[in-house]
């Protein structure tokens, strides 16, 4: 498995985010390195409280890029002053913290332990529905750890979901290496039935479907979209990693889909749902990707305009078939990654900007930085509510918020008062926004 090294600077919020990153990497089968010099990827979680701190962050980034094979910079300075790293000549991927695990996992499926059981973390319940996948991707190392898909019965997973709800879960995250192939080992595609039955559980909660490869869900995409349309408990959100806009590259990756299947999945959800969030992944710089292939990926991204996009620079995993391919130069991968990341920010920023001035019902899922909370609307878009304590907003609450601004990859919102006359505490929220 790949190795990682993570360093964290700044506040307790940064430390909490680093713990989440590390947990996701461990769940994905990665292990910590003895130091940055032994790591496949080094992760620098930055602080930007004063100018001296910024200089220290740049210096440490320079040191890390000389030792680790790949460098990711996240945290406050990455988001507020990401251009400073490029100006300093630092070759790093600048990411929001919750994008780091997907990037570091190199487009591979997540890995769970053989005895994976549901976990309640705050008001979020994690429900692994199966282990393993049906794919044989040429770049993926996790298949060696997980094997073929092994799906427990629907009733067993429903009972686990019911137990999570009774324990206080307000959001159930349905997880697996590839949720779309749940039930394939029994010769039956059971995901729509499972989601339908989870949504029938008594209680007020939301359900988020985890990663489902386009090849896995294509055969059930119409039935699945109907289940989404019929159940308000389901977030209108799917994570379907296309990985490339070129059929030639997809064939070399040994992906089980081609671009047209991905388009058909997207079109079906567009037809069934008024608004939904598409999350997808692209691997940039696969060994056989030429400039035309890259342009096809760029064109596909611009065409389908996902609201959440993970861009990963290809890196070799030992023991995989792709590791034996002659790779592209680092400069080529860097340039293509930069171009796609810039387009990504344009597309995602446009989506969040369109939310400003609109009101959405949200679920408060967890605490954020300072006195803020992180909320999700019906399409799983992230909305931050600040000054939560004085506004009486707690984790687990359902409330209406008006979106007042955005920061490219998430929005800011104010609670709407019960009388419906407008956002509560607008003056204070406006003052805070004015400080950004």
Automatic annotation (TrEMBL):
Domain Radical SAM core: 119-354
InterPro entries on file: Elp3/MiaA/NifB-like_rSAM, Methylthiotransferase, Methylthiotransferase_CS, Methylthiotransferase_N, Methylthiotransferase_N_sf, MiaB-like_arc_euk, rSAM, rSAM_horseshoe
Keyword tRNA processing assigned: yes
Catalytic activity: N(6)-L-threonylcarbamoyladenosine(37) in tRNA + (sulfur carrier)-SH + AH2 + 2 S-adenosyl-L-methionine = 2-methylsulfanyl-N(6)-L-threonylcarbamoyladenosine(37) in tRNA + (sulfur carrier)-H + 5'-deoxyadenosine + L-methionine + A + S-adenosyl-L-homocysteine + 2 H(+)
The UniProt record lists the keyword NADP: no
Domain of life: Archaea
Top EC category: transferase
Domain MTTase N-terminal, first and last residues per copy: 2-109
Protein family (similarity comment): Belongs to the methylthiotransferase family. CDKAL1 subfamily.
Protein task: Catalyzes the methylthiolation of N6-threonylcarbamoyladenosine (t(6)A), leading to the formation of 2-methylthio-N6-threonylcarbamoyladenosine (ms(2)t(6)A) at position 37 in tRNAs that read codons beginning with adenine.
Protein name: tRNA-t(6)A37 methylthiotransferase
Naturally occurring in which organism (per UniProt): Halorubrum rutilum
Taxon lineage: Archaea, Methanobacteriati, Methanobacteriota, Stenosarchaea group, Halobacteria
């Amino acid at each position: 498995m790949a190795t990682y090294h993570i360093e964290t600077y700044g506040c307790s919020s940064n430390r909490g985010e680093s713990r989440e990153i590390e947990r996701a990497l461990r769940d994905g089968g990665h292990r910590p390195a003895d130091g940055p010099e032994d790591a496949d990827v080094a992760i620098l979680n930055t602080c930007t409280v004063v100018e001296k701190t910024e200089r220290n962050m740049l210096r440490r980034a320079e040191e890390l890029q000389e030792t680790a094979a790949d460098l990711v910079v996240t945290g406050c300075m990455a988001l507020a002053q990401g251009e400073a790293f490029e100006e300093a000549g630092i070759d790093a991927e600048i990411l929001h913290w919750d994008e780091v695990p997907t990037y570091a996992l190199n487009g591979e499926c997540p890995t769970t332990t053989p005895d994976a059981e549901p976990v309640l973390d705050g008001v979020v319940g994690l429900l692994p529905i199966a282990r393993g996948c049906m794919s044989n991707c040429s770049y993926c190392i996790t298949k060696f750890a997980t094997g073929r898909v092994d799906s427990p019965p629907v009733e067993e997973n429903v009972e686990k979901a019911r137990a999570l709800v009774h324990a206080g879960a307000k959001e159930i995250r349905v997880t697996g290496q590839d949720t779309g192939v749940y039930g394939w080992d029994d010769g039956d595609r059971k995901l729509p039935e499972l989601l339908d039955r989870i949504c029938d559980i008594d209680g007020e909660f939301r359900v988020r479907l985890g990663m489902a490869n386009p090849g896995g869900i294509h055969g059930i995409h119409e039935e699945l979209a109907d289940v989404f349309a019929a159940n308000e408990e389901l977030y209108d959100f799917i994570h379907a990693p296309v990985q490339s806009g070129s059929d030639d590259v997809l064939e070399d990756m040994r992906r089980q889909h081609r671009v047209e299947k991905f388009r058909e999945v997207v079109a079906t959800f567009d037809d069934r749902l008024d608004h939904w969030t598409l999350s997808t992944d692209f691997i940039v710089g696969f060994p056989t990707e030429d400039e035309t292939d890259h342009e096809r990926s760029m064109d596909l991204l611009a065409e389908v305009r996902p609201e959440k996009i993970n861009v990963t620079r290809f890196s070799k995993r030992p023991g995989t078939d792709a590791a034996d391919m002659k790779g592209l130069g680092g400069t080529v991968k860097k340039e293509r990654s930069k171009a796609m990341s810039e387009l990504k920010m344009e597309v995602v920023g446009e989506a969040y900007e369109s939310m400003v001035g609109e009101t959405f019902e949200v679920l408060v899922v967890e605490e954020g930085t300072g006195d803020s909370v992180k909320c999700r609307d019906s399409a799983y878009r992230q909305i931050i509510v600040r000054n939560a304590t004085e506004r009486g907003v707690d984790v687990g609450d359902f409330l209406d918020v008006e979106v007042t601004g955005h920061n490219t990859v998430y929005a800011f919102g104010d609670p709407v008062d019960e009388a419906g006359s407008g956002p509560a505490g607008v003056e204070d929220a406006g003052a805070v926004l004015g400080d950004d």
